Amino acid sequence: MAPRKLKFWGWGYEDGLSPQVQKHVEFTMAERFGVNQWEKTPPPTIEEIQLQPSRLSLPQSLQHLCSVDPFERLSHTYGKSYRDVVRAFRRDFSNAPDIVAFPRTEGDLINLLEWCDGINAAAIIYGGGTSVVGGVEASIGDHYSGAVSIDLKYLNQVLEVDDISRAARIQGGIRGPAMESRLKEHGLSLRFYPQSFEFSTLGGWIATRAGGHFATLHTHIDDLVESLRVITPKGAVETRRLPGSGAGPSPDRLFIGSEGTLGIITEAWVRLQERPIYRTSSSVIFPDFQSGVKAVRKLSQSGLYPSNCRLLDAGEASDAGAGDGKSAVLMLGFESHDHLLDIWMLRALECCREYGGTYSQDAIKTSQKDSTARAGAVETWRNSFIQAPYLRDVMVGLGVIVETFETAITWNQFEEFHNGVMEAAQNAIREISGLNGWVTCRITHVYPDGPAPYYTVKALGKRGSELEQWDEIKSAVSEAIIRLGGTITHHHAVGRDHRPWYDQQRPQLYASALQSVKKTLDPNYILNPGVLID
Ligand SMILES: Cc1cc2nc3c(=O)[nH]c(=O)nc-3n(C[C@H](O)[C@H](O)[C@H](O)COP(=O)(O)OP(=O)(O)OC[C@H]3O[C@@H](n4cnc5c(N)ncnc54)[C@H](O)[C@@H]3O)c2cc1C
Fold it and tell me: Which residues contact 211 (CB under 8 A, 6 or more apart)?
């Protein structure tokens, strides 16, 4: 069988979505926006794109590691944000890297960095390329002689498993499914499932402080990292494996979230878990979003720590096919490798009932050994969640603007914050851009001191002006998030797209300290220029 072909211009495989589902998207979007006939833009083909000739000439010693093949240069031009896909549909690949390198060993990586340093070329680290914040784009200005995208896909091994401490040493370029299938042989799992799991990498998760599927406790990859090995232009940094340490500021934490600006995470020891064999899940209906929010706050402070605790507002639930468009829906779940969960679920549902939550009585009895079964609305929502990025690409071809904003805020500020962000988004859609559209919200992660709300905007763009209109919406909502006390990102990272608001959020002296670290590790500023640090 021929291998499935990846898109160079969007999410996943070329055949990732059946023509029937594509038609269904066109139909539902036409109904929602009142469109009679779509003016569709077809996805780009390689032949249509005018690539700039590569500005760099490779030394003989590196030629076997590198490619200037158009498919590779195009595939490594962008990440997977809405803005990236729109520019791909416009056939604009003006920031394509000059060369794509595929190191197979740390030695290769060191040679590549030395060469980039020597010729003043920017080195952009590429994991799975699923960044949605411009993290892998060679948007480097004219200070550099060119750009090399360094793809880590061959650094993809599980090197060592410590069954006693339940940890593994794993290379940074491994993708989610390959890593999990190797850990499964040991009955272990990282149990870290971002929505981009299929195509993103361990190194990318660590470099961006990614958020996984756990809605409480271990929400971010940060807590799952035991130690790191990082290659910088000035040499290697390897931290000590420890279950915990109070020895000064943590060297791991310096690199976790460094987004390819301080060094290349080639290996990490990560903390594992036994694979869960008990699961229980339920959907709870609330008369309105605010009642659901109160229940979720109670759950977050109850010490129950559900693995899933995602609250969808009525619009979000309806878009996912998991609600009637009038009620908010909470997806609630627990999992364990060790014990039955009925009592946890029972208590969690009691908390929900206090705030008007209703649910099927069967939910309490669903804990089963070896069960992967999920209740109806939960399963529907999960399928729609996995398919969403493919659907987004279809919508871009129709001229629909689709953008998401993810943030976090403390409970005491949540109501004002949420109202302010919703209003900013609605105003930006209608008053600034004059568009037909809507905004929905779900809470993806919860902490005892606050939630992480995730907003989705959908609007019918004006053909040819979608990027400019996206820009207006992005700026208006991002400004509201910062003004109202939130973070510009809870888990998508800063990249290039969030820089203006990240710069407002971080303390000035901290920014200077980060600059000093950069000067020490990467004195010629070749690593991912423009991201995090100027
Ligand atoms: C459909 C979709 C769903 C998503 N869902 C989630 C989600 O649920 N949770 C979440 O947190 N994010 C999510 N994201 C965002 C993205 O998947 C994450 O940021 C992810 O961690 C990026 O991993 P990657 O391997 O693709 O990294 P890339 O996109 O290749 O790189 C991201 C950044 O990290 C740097 N980098 C990558 N690898 C390394 C390395 N080994 N060493 C040093 N720097 C490196 C790059 O230079 C870049 O700055 C989603 C994105 C999409 C498109």
Answer: 194, 219, 220, 221, 444, 445, 452, 490, 491
What pLDDT does residue 365 have? 55
State residue 19's pLDDT score: 92
Q: 95: closest CA among 104, 103, 87, 106?
A: 87
How far does the centroid of ligand 1 lie from the alpha carbon of residue 351, in Å? 35
Taken as a whole, the chain contains a residue count of 534
Which residues in the chain land under pLDDT 70? 362-376
User: Which amino acid is present at 509?
Assistant: L
**Side chain identity, residue 166:** R
Using DSSP bridges, classify how beta strands 99-101 and 66-67 pair: parallel, antiparallel or unpaired: antiparallel
The percentage of residues in the chain with a pLDDT greater than 70, rounded to a whole number, is 97
The answer to whether 357 and 294 are in contact (CB under 8 A) is no
- 495: tokens are 């990249």
Q: Which two structure tokens, joined as six digits, stand for 317?
A: 């639930």
Does the beta carbon of 264 lie inside 6 Å of ligand 1?
yes
Q: Is 492 in the pocket of ligand 1 (CB under 6 A)?
A: yes
What pLDDT, on the 0 to 100 scale, is given for residue 371? 47
Cβ contact 175:198 at 8 Å:
yes
Residues 6+ apart with CB under 8 A from 54: 68, 73, 98, 99, 146
The CA–CA distances, whole Å, from 205 to 35, 241, 334, 335, 369 equal 39, 19, 24, 23, 31
State how far the Cα of 250 lies from the Cα of 230, in Å rounded to an integer: 14
Exposure string for 380-391, b = 16+ CB within 10 A, e = fewer: bbbeebebbbbb
Q: Which residue has the tokens 């609007």?
A: 459
CA distance 93 to 73: 9
Taking the C-alpha atoms of residue 241 and residue 233, their distance in angstroms, rounded to an integer, is 23
Q: What is the pTM of this model?
A: 0.97
Least Cα distance to 113 among 50, 73, 158, 65 occurs for 65
Q: Locate the ligand 1 atom nearest the alpha carbon of residue 125 and give its number.
A: 47
Is ligand 1 within 6 A of the CB of residue 233?
Answer: no
- pLDDT tens per residue across span 223-277: 999 999 999 999 999 999 999 999 999 999 999 999 999 999 999 999 999 999 9
**pLDDT (tens digit per residue) in 389-424:** 999 999 999 999 999 999 999 999 999 999 999 999
1/321 Cα distance (integer angstroms): 34
227, containing H or E segment? strand 225-232
Assess whether the C-beta atom of 387 lies below 6 angstroms from ligand 1: no
**How many other C-beta atoms can be found within 10 angstroms of the C-beta atom of residue 253?**
14
Token representation of residue 224: 């799952």
Asked if 4 and 14 count as a contact pair (C-beta separation under 8 A), the reply is yes
Instruction: Find tokens 């005491």 and name the residue.
Output: 412
